[in-house]
Structure to design on (242 residues):
């Protein structure tokens, strides 16, 4: 099942798709699992969550709200991690570079996908930002969304294509901490110069916490898609009034 936050366009005054129309995360319904404390957690590998077996091979959507801090730390602060260097995924924040990245390592570390968002000064200074990373099992990649805008999908940084559908290896997962098996890829973690706990480089809002929707890959509409929907809806209303 792939739920979508992609708005259906209206063509010639009629609905053109059966896409589920969802505007916010709340429309996805209750999360399959919520984590409200910093720390280490059980691996996702082989787990059944909310009736979904082997969740690490299925679509997945994760979301957190984070208040990023400006500063000089060059370490990559762990926001979330699952699995290890050979098979696993992570979300991290580099304070000095003001970058937010998802790393996805597969095929025993032989293939690494990365997507990075460059935070603006306004985003760093503006308080909580909603960060969503969604896994598409059919494409074997993650898409990163920051404050409702896509930063793109994980792009291979090695010559070996990703073929193994798995976003979590057997190592433990973690929220806000570096558990020792950071999924930076290629089996040895040399993709990142320094790794650390998130610490005071950013604060995760533990009220809503880390929300996980199993077997659901969220897609947020691009601004142009929203504009197209509005224009098409206007045309549809005009047609109906004639």
């Amino acid at each position: 099942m792939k739920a979508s936050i992609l708005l259906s366009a209206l063509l010639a005054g009629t609905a053109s798709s059966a896409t589920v129309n969802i505007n916010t995360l709340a429309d996805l319904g209750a999360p399959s699992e919520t984590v409200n404390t910093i720390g280490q957690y059980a691996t996702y590998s082989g787990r059944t969550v909310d009736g979904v077996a082997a969740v690490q091979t299925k679509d997945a959507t994760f979301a957190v709200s984070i208040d990023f801090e400006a500063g000089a730390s060059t370490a990559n602060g762990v926001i979330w991690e699952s699995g290890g260097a050979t098979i696993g995924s992570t979300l991290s924040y580099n304070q000095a570079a003001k970058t937010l990245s998802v790393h996805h390592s597969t095929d025993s570390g032989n293939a690494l996908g990365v997507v990075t968002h460059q935070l603006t000064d306004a985003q760093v200074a503006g308080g909580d930002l909603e960060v969503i990373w969604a896994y598409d099992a059919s494409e074997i990649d993650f898409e990163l969304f920051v404050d409702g805008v896509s930063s793109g999908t994980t792009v291979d940084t090695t010559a070996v294509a990703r073929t193994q559908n798995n976003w979590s290896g057997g190592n433990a997962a973690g929220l806000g901490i570096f558990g020792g098996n950071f999924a930076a890829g290629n089996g040895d973690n040399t993709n990142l110069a320094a790794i650390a706990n998130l610490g005071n480089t950013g604060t995760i809002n533990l009220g809503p916490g880390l929300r996980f929707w199993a077997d659901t890959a969220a897609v947020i509409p691009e601004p142009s898609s929203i504009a197209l929907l509005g224009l098409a809806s206007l045309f549809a209303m005009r047609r109906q009034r004639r």
Summary: The chain has one domain: 16-226. The CA atoms of residues 71 and 240 lie 56 Å apart.
